[in-house]
């Protein structure tokens, strides 16, 4: 078994309430770019701040151009062996919640039920009204925007519509944060997978899990600031380790 995978498997097998916390690293093996590394999303384009999206029509147009050009690379990818291994752990009843910083919907695509995924930074695969929260599929707006330049507005209340991601400057969603807090405090094993653990407030959850008595495992290709407090640290390819922990028959 791959280095470290045996110990991670033992910890999971002995735990009763496992919480998985994922960052961009779990999806890079699916071709989804991360945010801050060379070649990542923010090295290729400047983020559009929430306040600018709301106030400036030109910024809204630019945001929707990026959505339909797929320039950020957040949509259209397929789950990899790491996603499928996590989905298998959820199906077994081992993992009670998947807290994710990702917006790519790949946990759901791999078979994790919606009610088990807690999205701290939203979801790029659909849109929502900023006023009344009505959900819209992106396909509803693509043709009018690409052919006629029509910027999406809500058909229910006339409010501004944006992808259901949490932009810079936008308040963190209260309900997912509360659910994540509750899941974290109830965990007896908290596993960080593919996160640099530098983005707050999300990076605080592993610390709170540890303080509440959970064991902490970190699987990431690079060191993180929380490695010194973890019970297990694995610096390796995520899909390879997770596939060794929970092999899956699903396509990688």
Outline the fold blueprint:
Elements: H1 5-14, E1 18-22, H2 25-28, H3 41-44, H4 50-55, H5 57-69, H6 81-91, E2 95-100, H7 106-109, E3 117-119, E4 122-129, E5 135-137, H8 139-148, E6 161-165, H9 174-186, E7 189-193, H10 204-211, E8 215-219, E9 232-234, H11 238-245
Parallel strand pairs: 1-2, 1-7, 2-3, 7-8, 8-9
Antiparallel strand pairs: 4-5, 4-6
Q: What is the straight-line distance between the termini?
A: 18 Å
- Do you know the CATH topology of the largest domain? Rossmann fold
- Number of helical elements: 11
Mean pLDDT figure:
90
Main sheet specs: 6 strands, parallel
User: Which CATH architecture of the largest domain?
Assistant: 3-Layer(aba) Sandwich
Total discrete domains: 2
Q: Please give the share of residues in helix.
A: 25-40%
Task: Classify the beta-strand content into a percent band.
Answer: 15-25%
Contiguous low-pLDDT stretches (5 residues minimum) are none
Would you report the number of β strands?
Answer: 9
Classified in CATH, the superfamily of the largest domain is TPP-binding domain
Secondary-structure element string: HEHHHHHEHEEEHEHEHEEH
Structural class: alpha/beta
Major β-sheet strand ordering: 3-2-1-7-8-9
The multimeric state of the shown protein is: single chain
Tell me the Rg in angstroms.
Answer: 19 Å
């Amino acid at each position: 078994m791959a280095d470290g995978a045996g110990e991670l498997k033992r910890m999971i097998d002995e735990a009763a309430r496992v919480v998985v916390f994922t960052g961009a690293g779990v999806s890079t093996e699916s071709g989804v770019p991360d945010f801050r590394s060379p070649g990542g999303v923010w090295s290729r384009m400047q983020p559009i701040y929430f306040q600018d999206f709301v106030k400036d029509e030109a910024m809204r147009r630019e945001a929707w151009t990026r959505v339909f050009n797929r320039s950020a690379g957040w949509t259209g990818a397929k789950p990899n062996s790491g996603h499928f291994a996590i989905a298998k752990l959820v199906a077994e009843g081992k993992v009670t919640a998947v807290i994710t910083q990702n917006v790519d919907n790949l946990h759901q695509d791999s078979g994790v039920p919606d009610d088990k995924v807690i999205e701290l930074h939203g979801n790029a695969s659909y849109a929502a009204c900023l006023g009344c929260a009505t959900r819209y599929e992106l396909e509803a707006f693509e043709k009018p925007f690409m052919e006629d330049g029509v910027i999406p507005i809500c058909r229910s209340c006339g409010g501004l519509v944006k992808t259901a991601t949490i932009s810079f400057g936008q308040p963190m969603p209260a309900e997912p944060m509360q659910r994540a807090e509750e899941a974290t405090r109830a965990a007896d094993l908290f596993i960080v997978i593919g996160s640099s653990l530098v983005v707050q407030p999300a990076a605080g959850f592993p610390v709170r899990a540890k303080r509440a008595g959970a064991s902490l495992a970190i699987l990431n290709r690079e060191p993180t600031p929380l490695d010194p407090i973890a019970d297990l640290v694995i610096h390796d390819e995520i899909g390879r380790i997770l596939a060794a922990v929970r092999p899956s028959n699903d396509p990688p």
